[in-house]
Structures are given as C-alpha cells and as structure tokens.
C-alpha cells in the first residue's frame, strides 16, 4: 500500500498542471470535461430537455387529433411532427438517457475510476448535440422538416425539400456519436472491472448495457449506409431505390429494419437492466434467476438481428419469407417471458416497500407485458395485414417505450438522484408524479388499440368521425401525461437544490448494498452521496455475496 | 492524473469538442452545397481544414503522452478494444453495400425480369426488360454519351487488368506492413521504416490505378454512378473502399513519420498495430470487392 501511494505522489511531482484533480472552472468544466460523472450529467440533462421538446411535438399531434377535421396545423407540418417527434425521442431522449445512466453508473458499479476512453467520451456527447441541432434546424428550412415518418422510406422521403441532406448528415453524426459511446462502454466493461468483479457477478444494468453496446456498434453503421444511399439517390444519380435503374425501394426497408429492429432493443435492453437492478432492492431479495436473465438478454439481442422483416409483412415478400419472419419473431416471446417471470418471482414473498422507483418498476413490468403481447399479436403475419400501419401499432410500440423505457428512465432518476446529489427527493411529489403518469399513460395509449383495430391509419392529421370519441379521450390522456412530467422536472431541480433537506446516506435505500449489485455488493452504494469527483481511483477488491436459499 | 495502479485519466480535452465543431461545419457546408448554395463548398472545406488541424492536434497529444510513458498496459488494451470495435463497425458499414449488391443482383433485378412472383411486375412495368447482370435497369440509365446525351450503353468493368494488378498491390502491401511489424518487434528500425515506406507506396499506387480505372470508366466505358444499379453498386463499393485506402495510407504515413522520429517500442506501439489492423481490414474488403464486384 505505501509503495503504491509513494508512486502516486511521485507522479504528481512531475505534474505541472495544478488543476489536475478537480473540474475546470465555470462553463468550460462542462465543455471540455472527460469525467464520466460530468458527461453522464450532460447526457441526462440533454435527454430531459429533448424529452420535453419531443413531448411538445407529441402534444401538437394530440391537439390536432383531438377532433376530426383540420384545426391547428397543416397536414405537411403534422407529418413533420410525427417524424421529428419519433427521431427526437429515439435519438435525443431515450438513447441519450440510457447512455447518461451508463456513463454515471457503469464505472461506479464495476469499481472503475472512469470510462476506458474519456476523451472519446467527451466527443460522443458533443457529436450527439451537434446531430440533434442539425436535425432540429430542418424545422426551419424551405420545404419543412422531413415528413416521411422516422423510417425515412424512399421514394417519399426523397420529396423532402432542403432538409434532406441535413437530416442525412444528422443521422451520420448521431451514428458516430452512438458508435463511439458504445465502443467506450464495451472497453470499460471488458477492461476496467475491479478485481473480483467477474462477468457473471456484474449488476444486470451493466450486463444489459454491454449487450446493447454490441447492438449499437453493429447496426448504427447500417443506418448510416442506408441514409447515404438516400443521399446519393437524390443528389448523385444512383438508383439503389429506383426500379427504373434496377434498384428497389423495398431494399431500403430491409436495410432500415435490419438497423431498426435491433434499435428498438437498444432502447429496451437497458430498461430491463434498470428494472433488474431496482426490483431486488425494494423486494429485499436477490434477483431471481440472475444467469437466466443474462442469457435471456443475449438471446433477445441475437434474435433482434434475424426478425427485421416482420415490420414489412405487407410490402410483398415471398411466402417463405413471411413464414420465417413470423416464427422467428414469435421466438422472442420466450426470453422476454423469462425476464417477466423472473421479475415477478423476485417480488414474490419479498419484503416489498413501494417508494417511487419501485412503483415505476412494477408499472413497467405490467405495462411492458401488455406491449409485448400486442407485439406477439402482430408477429402473426396474416393478422398483421389488418394491424399494419394502424393506431394498433402506435399503441403497441408506445406501450413498450413510454411505460417501459421512459418509466424506467424515471425510475432510474428517482433511484439514483439521492446518490448523485446527496439529497433525498420529495417522496410525496414523486408518488403523485407516478400515479398521474401511470393512469394518464393508459388513458393516452389504451384507446389507440381500439382505434387501430377499427381501422384508423397512423400518421394522418384528420380522420373519419367514427374515431372521434377515442381520439378525444386519448388526447385528454396525452395532455395530462405531458403536464404531469413537469412534476419530474420540478423534482429534479428541487432535489439538486437540496430537496426535502434530508441528506441521503451512502446506502440511500435499505438493502441497496446487499441487493443492488449482481453477485457482489452494490458498489455505488458503498460510496458517499454525492460521490466525490473521482471514485475508485484505487480499485476495490470485490467479494461475492453468498445468498442463503 | 494517474490512479494508484497507474491508470491514466485525462482531465480536460479541448480537441474533441473542436473536432466535433469541424465535422459539423463540414456537414452543414456539404448539405448547403447539395442544396445549391454557392458558399456551401467553402464552408465544407473550412470545416475539413479545421477538422484535420484538430485531429492532428489530438493525435500529437496522444503520441506525446504515449512516448512519455503515461499509458500502461491496461490503457493499451482499451485502445486496442476501441480500434477493434471501430473496425467491426466499418465491417458492418461495408456489409450494407455488399448486401445491396447481393439483394439487387439476386432478387430485385430478377423480379423486375419476371422471375418468382415478379411476373405481373414485368408485365405491368417494363415488359421488354431482359433481366441480367450487369444491368443499368429497365430504363437503361446513364451510359456512353452520344451527341451529348447518355445512350444507355455501358461496358462493365473486367476483373483482369487493373483490378487484378490492384489485388496484387494490396496483398503485397499486407506483407510489407507485417514485415515492418517484425522489424519493430526485433528493434530493427531500418526494416520498420523501409517496410512502412513500401506499404504506403503500394497503397498510393493502388489509389493511382483506381483513379485511372475510374477515369476510363467515365470517359470511355459509359460506366458512371448514374449507370443504373450496376454503376451505383460498383462506384459505391469501390469508392468507399478507395476512400478507406486513402485514410489508411494517411494513418500509415503518420506512423512512418513517428517511426522515423524514433517512436514505438516492441512493448508499446498501439498506433502501429491499430494502423496495421486497419490496413488489413481494407485489404480484406478489397478481396471481397474483387470477387463479388469484378470477378463474378
């Protein structure tokens, strides 16, 4: 030990940088930081801002759909809103939200001093900001923002005005950002674990993220390639998606969904990770079936690469293709069910307490299962011919994204805010936020199942009067949900500024040290709240926890 | 600072955010150029210049730190993992275009010609179209200029001749870079430098041959980006590959410069290894191109 410390000091004798230990002063701290906690905070704040930007767009959509007829916006702008809402939420809110959690938590969870490649970490954040700014700038361009839906299908998307090249380059920048972020996470997890933190003892959040990172590295370049071909088709006379030159617009759909299907799992796997981390703590029981959780995550990730054309049952595929993609898609239900059963079994006979993070987690398990079941319905190709491009699919994927990914981002916020800030949040406001969100999200999305089954198409600003009632109810739910989220904003700001005045202990949650890790103690809960700027500059030696069965 | 077991954590980084600014400037400039703005190209070039200066600054910093012994084995492993997965992402990027070639050649073009479920497609769209490969599509897009207008006639690129020569050039460059690596490991700096010079030269020769081939394709063979799906896939695949060869040659030149300055030790030469991996990757992609684009 003394030898180690001596070496440490010697290094600093040679260091001429007096500010070596702390952050830079003022705003510069955030711009040039390479600290995983600072960058994590940047990502999380950015995600929260984008959540409100994307949410405002959603409210424009719901306001227009409140009644039949055209009320507030032009159809073209309406279509831009559906497109931009999706792109902003996917690439600006949900993905950065989880990357922010990864940055903050992974080094602390595995006993590492920082991310493996800290400078690249800084660049991936700023590339994200740049990409989203480029995307947002298209709203103000001649011809408007892209209005083809987030899938950017040709030939429709090629009719976009001046926004097209900006949207394409925005995807490139976002892709580079995600790939760099993912590479960093892989290198951190495989190279930076403290002694004793073996792979099968890692917290589930870390496991789900390393698998997500592989998905990101594999599919972001695929999306970049697809939009590059859109660009050359539009500006350089190529005919990739033009049958007149021997190309095929359906080819774009294949490439897009080869990216797009893993992409939706990129948004859900870290969600699973957060749930698997929170539920054991509040049930005061170790996670049921840890290793089956790991294998189920890997299985879902693998399957995500071989099911993409279930998004395209109606475009015209050989029947063999339809059948294959139908059965392969159904397989996903198996590992997903393993997870749902494991979460339920973890809660079974646990000494549960229902603080806000746990409330969100329980709602997640229930409502995600609902979204999963509608997914199973749509995997059946002949049935999907009826559901395709209706509000049924809108209801389906919003159930897997809002009360799943978004709820678990919220849950993670409540769970770790006391650790990050050192202050307890206001539990009463948190509970109010949960109940308002959980009820309104169902008022918002549940009626959309009925609308879809009755045949209401998605991405339309006006509709037949027969759909009026459910649309009005859905819009009311949407506005309650949207406004309720301001409570979360309030809580975050309030907690940072001192919250209830109660200081958080190191452990914060009763049982977090024992149940908050994977096969070891929850390392982040052994640190002070808030943790110092640098943590684990000396690797902790991690001992496994033996549970009595 | 350095942690007790020597892990190096940098604290500030101005280069990444500036490099990002350069990239954004490039993207905005290029997008404006495509939209017909006259200043677009200038903005893009400014961004490119900015980006190059920033990357140069960043890499100089890394090289200086590496040579001063700031990094240890663990940092070296992180760098290697980073490079490995970066190359994997590049593999996936090329996979898109190889996949496009496979799909159009084996599925969509035959369907246009009436195969499989495409009978109605052929009948309704272009009943006269004879599907086959190479093709510039039912509308015979692009082709040699006759009286200033594209005629729809083009010649496909043969495999023997320049492409075969290029294959030999790249394969030998793979050998020379390995020879240089052996030199590095054996502390034979002369062999290291000679090997790298040979590799860069072979790479540049490859680019030269490729440029000649493109010139011929455009001026004499009627083969352009606009020559239907054959032209699109041909130029997209070989073009992105050629770009990667250029990038690889630049990286190797930097490594050559550093070798000449006396950098790298047998136990510490990540930059060399990263460059060599990248070069082998470019090599392998070319083999795929030679087989699937030129030969078959």
TrEMBL record, chain A:
<feature type="transmembrane region" description="Helical">
    <location>
        <begin position="393"/>
        <end position="417"/>
    </location>
</feature>
<dbReference type="InterPro" id="IPR033944">
    <property type="entry name" value="Cyt_c_oxase_su1_dom"/>
</dbReference>
<dbReference type="GO" id="GO:0046872">
    <property type="term" value="F:metal ion binding"/>
</dbReference>
<keyword id="KW-0813">Transport</keyword>
<dbReference type="Pfam" id="PF00115">
    <property type="entry name" value="COX1"/>
</dbReference>
<feature type="transmembrane region" description="Helical">
    <location>
        <begin position="83"/>
        <end position="104"/>
    </location>
</feature>
<comment type="pathway">
    <text>Energy metabolism; oxidative phosphorylation.</text>
</comment>
<protein>
    <recommendedName>
        <fullName>Cytochrome c oxidase subunit 1</fullName>
        <ecNumber>7.1.1.9</ecNumber>
    </recommendedName>
</protein>
<feature type="domain" description="Cytochrome oxidase subunit I profile">
    <location>
        <begin position="30"/>
        <end position="543"/>
    </location>
</feature>
<dbReference type="GO" id="GO:0045277">
    <property type="term" value="C:respiratory chain complex IV"/>
</dbReference>
<keyword id="KW-0349">Heme</keyword>
<keyword id="KW-0472">Membrane</keyword>
<feature type="transmembrane region" description="Helical">
    <location>
        <begin position="125"/>
        <end position="143"/>
    </location>
</feature>
<keyword id="KW-0812">Transmembrane</keyword>
<feature type="transmembrane region" description="Helical">
    <location>
        <begin position="294"/>
        <end position="313"/>
    </location>
</feature>
<feature type="transmembrane region" description="Helical">
    <location>
        <begin position="325"/>
        <end position="345"/>
    </location>
</feature>
<dbReference type="InterPro" id="IPR036927">
    <property type="entry name" value="Cyt_c_oxase-like_su1_sf"/>
</dbReference>
<dbReference type="GO" id="GO:0006119">
    <property type="term" value="P:oxidative phosphorylation"/>
</dbReference>
<feature type="transmembrane region" description="Helical">
    <location>
        <begin position="163"/>
        <end position="192"/>
    </location>
</feature>
<feature type="transmembrane region" description="Helical">
    <location>
        <begin position="42"/>
        <end position="63"/>
    </location>
</feature>
<feature type="transmembrane region" description="Helical">
    <location>
        <begin position="429"/>
        <end position="450"/>
    </location>
</feature>
<dbReference type="GO" id="GO:0022904">
    <property type="term" value="P:respiratory electron transport chain"/>
</dbReference>
From TrEMBL, chain B:
<keyword id="KW-0472">Membrane</keyword>
<dbReference type="Pfam" id="PF00510">
    <property type="entry name" value="COX3"/>
</dbReference>
<keyword id="KW-0560">Oxidoreductase</keyword>
<feature type="transmembrane region" description="Helical">
    <location>
        <begin position="12"/>
        <end position="31"/>
    </location>
</feature>
<feature type="transmembrane region" description="Helical">
    <location>
        <begin position="277"/>
        <end position="295"/>
    </location>
</feature>
<comment type="similarity">
    <text>Belongs to the cytochrome c oxidase subunit 3 family.</text>
</comment>
<dbReference type="GO" id="GO:0016491">
    <property type="term" value="F:oxidoreductase activity"/>
</dbReference>
<feature type="transmembrane region" description="Helical">
    <location>
        <begin position="234"/>
        <end position="257"/>
    </location>
</feature>
<dbReference type="InterPro" id="IPR033945">
    <property type="entry name" value="Cyt_c_oxase_su3_dom"/>
</dbReference>
<keyword id="KW-1278">Translocase</keyword>
<dbReference type="InterPro" id="IPR013833">
    <property type="entry name" value="Cyt_c_oxidase_su3_a-hlx"/>
</dbReference>
<feature type="transmembrane region" description="Helical">
    <location>
        <begin position="82"/>
        <end position="103"/>
    </location>
</feature>
<feature type="transmembrane region" description="Helical">
    <location>
        <begin position="160"/>
        <end position="180"/>
    </location>
</feature>
<dbReference type="GO" id="GO:0004129">
    <property type="term" value="F:cytochrome-c oxidase activity"/>
</dbReference>
<feature type="domain" description="Heme-copper oxidase subunit III family profile">
    <location>
        <begin position="3"/>
        <end position="296"/>
    </location>
</feature>
<dbReference type="InterPro" id="IPR035973">
    <property type="entry name" value="Cyt_c_oxidase_su3-like_sf"/>
</dbReference>
<keyword id="KW-1133">Transmembrane helix</keyword>
<dbReference type="GO" id="GO:0019646">
    <property type="term" value="P:aerobic electron transport chain"/>
</dbReference>
<dbReference type="InterPro" id="IPR024791">
    <property type="entry name" value="Cyt_c/ubiquinol_Oxase_su3"/>
</dbReference>
<keyword id="KW-0812">Transmembrane</keyword>
<feature type="transmembrane region" description="Helical">
    <location>
        <begin position="43"/>
        <end position="61"/>
    </location>
</feature>
<feature type="transmembrane region" description="Helical">
    <location>
        <begin position="192"/>
        <end position="214"/>
    </location>
</feature>
């Amino acid at each position: 030990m003394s030898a180690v410390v001596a070496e440490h000091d010697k290094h600093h004798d040679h260091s001429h940088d007096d500010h070596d230990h702390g952050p830079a002063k003022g705003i510069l701290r955030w711009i040039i930081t390479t600290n995983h906690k600072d960058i994590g905070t940047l990502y999380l704040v950015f995600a929260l801002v984008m959540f409100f930007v994307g949410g405002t767009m959603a409210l424009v959509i719901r306001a227009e759909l409140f009644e039949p007829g055209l009320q507030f916006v032009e159809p073209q702008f309406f279509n831009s809103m559906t497109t931009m809402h999706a792109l902003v939420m996917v690439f600006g809110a949900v993905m950065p939200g989880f990357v922010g959690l990864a940055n903050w938590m992974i080094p602390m969870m595995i006993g590492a001093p920082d991310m493996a490649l800290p400078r690249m970490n800084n660049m991936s954040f700023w590339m994200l900001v740049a990409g989203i700014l480029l995307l947002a700038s298209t709203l103000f361009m001649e011809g408007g923002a892209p209005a083809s839906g987030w899938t950017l299908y040709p030939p429709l998307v090629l009719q976009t005005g001046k926004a097209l090249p900006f949207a394409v380059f925005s995807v490139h920048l976002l892709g580079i950002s995600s790939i760099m972020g993912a590479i960093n996470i892989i290198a951190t997890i495989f190279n930076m674990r403290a002694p004793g933190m073996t792979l099968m003892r890692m917290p589930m959040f870390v496991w789900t993220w390393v698998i997500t990172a592989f998905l990101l590295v594999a599919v972001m370049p695929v999306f970049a390639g697809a939009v590059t071909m859109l660009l050359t088709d539009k500006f350089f006379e190529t005919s990739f998606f033009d049958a007149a030159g021997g190309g095929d617009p359906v080819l774009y759909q294949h490439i897009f969904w080869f990216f797009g299907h893993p992409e939706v799992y990129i948004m859900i796997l870290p969600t699973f990770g957060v749930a698997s981390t929170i539920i054991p703590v509040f049930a005061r029981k170790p996670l049921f079936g840890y290793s089956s959780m790991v294998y189920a995550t890997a299985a879902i990730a693998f399957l995500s690469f071989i099911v993409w054309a279930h998004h395209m049952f109606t475009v015209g595929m050989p029947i063999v293709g339809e059948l294959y993609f139908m059965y392969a898609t159904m397989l996903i239900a198996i590992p997903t069910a393993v997870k749902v059963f494991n979460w339920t079994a973890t809660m079974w006979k646990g000494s549960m307490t229902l603080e806000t993070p746990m409330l969100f987690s329980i709602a997640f398990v229930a409502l995600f299962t609902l979204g999963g079941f509608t997914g199973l319905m749509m995997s059946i190709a002949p049935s999907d011919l009826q559901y395709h491009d209706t509000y049924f699919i809108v209801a389906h994927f919003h159930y897997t994204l809002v009360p799943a990914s978004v709820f678990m981002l919220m849950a993670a916020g409540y769970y770790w805010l006391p650790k990050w800030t050192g202050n307890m949040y206001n539990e009463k406001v948190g509970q109010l936020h949960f109940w308002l969100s959980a009820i309104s999200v169902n008022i918002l999305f549940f009626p959309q199942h009925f609308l879809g089954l009755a045949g209401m198409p998605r991405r339309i600003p006006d509709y037949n009067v027969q759909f009026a009632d459910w649309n009005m109810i859905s819009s009311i739910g949407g506005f309650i949900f949207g406004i309720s989220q301001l409570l979360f904003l309030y809580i975050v700001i309030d907690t940072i500024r001192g919250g209830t005045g109660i200081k958080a202990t190191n452990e914060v949650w009763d049982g977090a040290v024992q149940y908050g890790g994977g096969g070891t103690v929850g390392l982040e809960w052994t640190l002070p709240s808030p943790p110092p700027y640098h943590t684990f500059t000396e690797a902790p030696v991690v001992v496994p926890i033996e549970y009595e069965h | 600072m350095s942690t007790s077991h020597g892990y190096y954590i940098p604290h500030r980084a101005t280069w990444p955010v500036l490099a990002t600014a350069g990239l954004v400037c490039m993207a905005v400039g290029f997008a404006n150029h495509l939209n017909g703005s006259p200043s677009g190209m200038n903005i893009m070039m400014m961004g490119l210049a900015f980006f190059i200066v920033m990357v140069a600054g960043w890499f100089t910093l890394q090289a200086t730190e590496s040579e001063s012994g700031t990094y240890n084995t663990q940092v070296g492993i992180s760098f290697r993992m980073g490079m490995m997965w970066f190359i994997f992402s590049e593999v996936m990027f090329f996979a898109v275009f190889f996949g496009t070639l496979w799909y159009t050649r084996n599925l969509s073009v035959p369907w246009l010609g009436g195969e499989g479920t495409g009978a109605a497609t052929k009948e309704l769209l272009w009943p006269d179209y004879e599907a086959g490969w190479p093709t510039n599509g039912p509308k015979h897009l692009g082709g040699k200029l006759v009286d200033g207008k594209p005629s729809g006639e083009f010649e496909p690129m043969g495999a023997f001749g320049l492409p075969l020569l290029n294959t030999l050039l790249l394969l030998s460059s793979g050998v020379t870079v390995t020879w240089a690596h052996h030199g590095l490991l054996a502390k034979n700096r002369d062999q290291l430098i000679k090997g790298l010079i040979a590799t860069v030269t072979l790479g540049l020769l490859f680019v030269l041959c490729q440029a000649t081939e493109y010139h011929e394709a455009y001026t004499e063979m009627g083969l352009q980006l606009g020559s239907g799906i054959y032209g699109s896939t041909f130029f997209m695949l070989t073009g992105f590959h050629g770009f990667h060869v250029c990038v690889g040659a630049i990286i190797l030149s930097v490594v050559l410069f550093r070798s000449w300055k006396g950098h790298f030790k047998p136990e510490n030469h990540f930059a060399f290894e990263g460059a060599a991996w990248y070069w082998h990757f470019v090599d392998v992609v070319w083999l795929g191109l030679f087989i699937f684009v030129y030969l078959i």
